[in-house]
Amino acid sequence: MAVPTNTQFAVAVHVMTLLAGVPDEVLSSERLAGSANANPVHVRRVLGALRRAGLVSSRPGVHGGWQLERGAHTVTLAEVWRAVQGDDPLLGLHGAAPECSVGQRIQHALGDVDRRAARAVEHELGRTTIGDLADDTRARELETAPAPAR
Predict the structure, then answer these.
(1) What is the value of pTM for the model shown?
(2) How far, in Å, CA of 32 to CA of 38, rounded?
(3) Domain range list for the chain
């Protein structure tokens, strides 16, 4: 299976879920990057998009870091998707040769398909919140935790 080259959405969801797990703390971008196993520069770019969307905020300085701006159960994955995806096409559309009539028509047709697919993706992502994922990951940690010794 091919590995996706754009990991911004997955990284965004990962770091926001991590932030949701510690709502009263601020976490450094280095710690978030370490958890996501991603380059800190990439994580900061993703965090910047999330900040512009009003989903996270940052505090500078030695004790600075990142935190959620809203309750985790109020942030849908669709909002995260829009923050990092923007208006970029969902499908890998390419520019056709200007003199190719088929190419020009297929670009228009694929553009319509792309918009419908993007709406479907957003609809599905709107059904899940960061809080849902945070709850699920904590529940799974508890399920796999060893029983206390007696």
Answers:
(1) 0.83
(2) 9
(3) 8-89+129-144
Contact 105, 85 (CB under 8 A): no
DSSP secondary structure of 48-101: HHHHHTTSEEEE-STT-EEEESS-GGG-BHHHHHHHHHTT--SS---PPPTT-H
Q: Tell me how far apart the alpha carbons of residues 100 and 103 are, in angstroms, rounded to a whole number.
A: 5
DSSP state of 74: G
Q: How far is CA 125 from CA 21, 78, 146, in A?
A: 20, 5, 33
Tell me: domain 8-89+129-144, CATH 1.10.10.10, correct? yes
Question: Which pLDDT tens digits describe the chain residue by residue (150 residues)?
Answer: 555 567 899 999 999 999 999 888 999 999 999 999 999 999 999 999 999 999 999 998 888 899 999 999 999 999 999 999 988 888 877 777 888 888 778 888 888 999 999 999 999 999 999 999 999 887 566 555 555 555
Q: Which two tokens stand for residue 26?
A: 């601020």
Asked if residues 22 and 68 have their Cβ atoms less than 8 Å apart, the reply is no
